[in-house]
Design goal:
about 325 residues, alpha/beta, 8-stranded mixed β-sheet
């Protein structure tokens, strides 16, 4: 069973006198930097001079080049996309790491697959919100927390766990309705990639196929989209699952809906689906996916660009654009 930490386990004073550098002022970086500053910690931002740099200025930070921020920091939060983090780490972060410093990740990916290998004298910890950046920013502002997975990969100082808990506290995870759960870089990578490679991707393509078949059956594209997801009901169901539970949220549906879901849903989950999920787990564990993605990036991402282009030009995307224009969303 996973261990849940209580707010009393965290000592914010662990960060007293420390400079925390947030490297990458994107969705997570912005949210965590603002929350840590709100918690009265000393925060600096490292970013390239782009829109995010200007956003940091607008938020009251004085952003620095990433290497300059890393040099000044005691604790470095590396909040960059997985695919660009290794190169920036090697060029701009690693030269400024040494004994007494802490390197923090919000994703287990690059440590799990050894695309980043920190020096042994550095603490290496995981603070991984299970929440989009906007939620990380908005929830604490109204007194609510969110779930976070934490882990320690290297404890050179003997204080790595204390630092991990202090950062989780600083970003707001211990607030009401939040949770700080013991995990690891490897486990975080497994669950994150598993979701992306199974139900999350499958749901998108299932909705795409459902749209096609409904239109073929004579349903207007607008009505099909509103029923499938454009109304926002799908998001409300997701929120109900989070608050009530996956099966308990069924009570919010009519008995007709409940009977239809319970009798038809299992038909889509058979031996083939389970075999594909087991295959996904195996490819995550042995690094097959990580190697394939690394090779794709090295080649200039031609498959990624082709696949993304295909879905963005698909019939459902075209119908969606027309509907959203009518609804004033675009």
């Amino acid at each position: 069973m996973a261990k849940f930490f209580a707010a009393a386990d965290a000592d914010p004073a662990v960060l007293s006198g420390k400079t925390v550098a947030v490297i990458g002022y994107g969705n997570q970086g912005r949210a965590q930097a603002i929350n840590l500053r709100r918690a009265r910690h000393r925060v600096i931002v490292g970013n390239q001079e782009d829109d995010s740099w200007r956003q940091a200025l607008g938020d009251g930070f004085n952003p620095l080049a990433m290497d300059a921020a890393a040099a000044r920091a005691d604790i470095v939060l590396l909040l960059l996309p997985d695919e660009i983090a290794p190169d920036i780490y090697r060029r701009m972060i690693e030269p400024h790491l040494g004994r007494g410093k802490t390197l923090v990740f919000a994703s287990g990916y690059n440590i799990t697959y050894k695309f980043i290998v920190p020096p042994r004298e550095v603490d290496v910890i995981l603070v991984a919100p299970r929440m989009i950046g906007q939620g990380v920013l908005d929830l604490p502002a109204r007194g609510e927390g969110f779930p976070v997975l934490i882990g320690v990969k290297q404890d050179a100082s003997g204080r790595a766990l204390a630092t991990t808990l202090a950062i989780a506290h600083g970003i707001g995870a211990f607030m009401p309705h939040g949770a700080v759960v013991e995990s690891s870089f490897e486990e975080e990578t497994m669950v994150d990639l598993f979701s992306e490679h199974t139900w999350a991707g499958a749901m998108l393509f299932l909705l795409d196929r459902a749209f096609k078949l409904l239109v073929e059956a004579g349903v207007s594209p607008e009505v099909a989209l509103l029923e499938l997801y454009a109304s926002g009901e799908l998001g409300e169901i997701g929120r109900a699952m989070a608050s009530l539970g996956m099966w308990n949220q069924l009570k919010l549906h009519s008995h007709t809906s409940q009977f239809g879901q319970l009798t038809h849903g299992t038909q889509f989950i058979g031996a083939d689906a389970e075999a594909l999920m087991r295959k996904a787990i195996a490819e995550i564990r042995d690094g097959t996916f990580a190697r394939r993605w690394a090779a794709e990036q090295a080649a200039g991402s031609p498959m990624f660009q082709r696949l993304l282009g295909e879905v963005l030009e698909s019939p459902v995307a075209s119908a969606e654009a027309e509907l959203y224009a009518k609804l004033g969303r675009r």
